[in-house]
Amino acid sequence: MLEQALIIYYALSAVYIVICVKWKLSAPMLTIMVCLFLPMIGLLLILLRGLVSRGTELPDNRFHELINGFEQEGRYLGRPDVAKETNLVPLEEALVVNDLATRRRILLDVLKEDIDEKYIPMLEQAVNNEDTETSHYAVTAVIEIKRKLLLSIQKWSVQYENNNSDLNVLLSYSQAVKKYMVSGFMDNRMQLTYRLTYVKLLDQLIHSEICSPALFMEKINTEIDLGHLDEALNVSRLFLERFPESEEAYLTALKVYYLLKMKELFSQTLEALKQSKIRVSNYGLNTIRYWSAEGA
Q1: Which one of 227, 237, 255, 267 has the lowest number of neighbouring Cβ atoms within 10 Å?
Q2: Which DSSP state fits 4?
Q3: What is the DSSP code (8-state) at residue 186?
Q4: Burial of 165 by CB count in 10 Å (0-12 exposed, 13-18 middle, 19+ buried)?
Q5: Which fold has domain 211-296?
Q6: What is the pLDDT of residues 78-115, one digit of tens each?
Q7: Exposure b/e, 212-235, CB count within 10 A at least 16 = b
Q8: Coil, strand or helix: which one is 86?
Q9: 117: which DSSP letter?
Q10: From residue 183, how far is each of 143, 146, 190 by CA, in Å?
């Protein structure tokens, strides 16, 4: 049965090749190679290429992608690469300038991907789109992101309860909480609850062996957001003690002293930064120049 099918396939292929040569419908060598090395499906691909060249939706170079897909994987996945397709035009702009069909297609492509919080700015714009279907897709995506963020928090919360000294769990749990905090998916009361959880985790991290300037800055800034300036002051002092060669430690201390109106400590810390051998960034240099100016 299989032999008969192959005979019929190659016979049809031979007829098609003759027609292509006579009427110049396709590249003869390409047709021969595809039909020869891709039995049963090669002729179908060639016919598809013929349809493409007559103005169907796929450009000609996609035909070669189809062939490569069959050779490498045995199948072709028609799902678009969202990151690749949307690099040239930001999604936010596409939602404004393109027609309704394009807007909906973009949102559907996003929904097919493993969507995460990086899409939030675009989705916030899409939610308020005048096209109700586009808005519906965006709301669906937002709900899905929120669900994933909450599942991540629940997962690491359980592990934290079981082993609150595991540094990997601590770090992962804190990152999950931060992602949810910056997503904008909570009211003020929930924001406060998660910030308190976040600073608790950060406190453990800055007293661990993996403490870093970034963790200290997160801790201080979150304490400031909570209005805990005394705690921010204590942490900034510890920051300077642990990382005396860090520009961020000095700049964060200056921020805390400024908020607490500690003029003398502010001046002392600014002078210490100026006299240090720390190679400051452009931001740090501008900060020093600003506060060193007469009357600052």
Answers
A1: 227
A2: H
A3: S
A4: exposed
A5: 1.25.40
A6: 444 445 444 334 566 556 655 677 766 766 666 666 66
A7: ebebbbbbbbbbbebebeebbbeb
A8: coil
A9: G
A10: 12, 8, 12
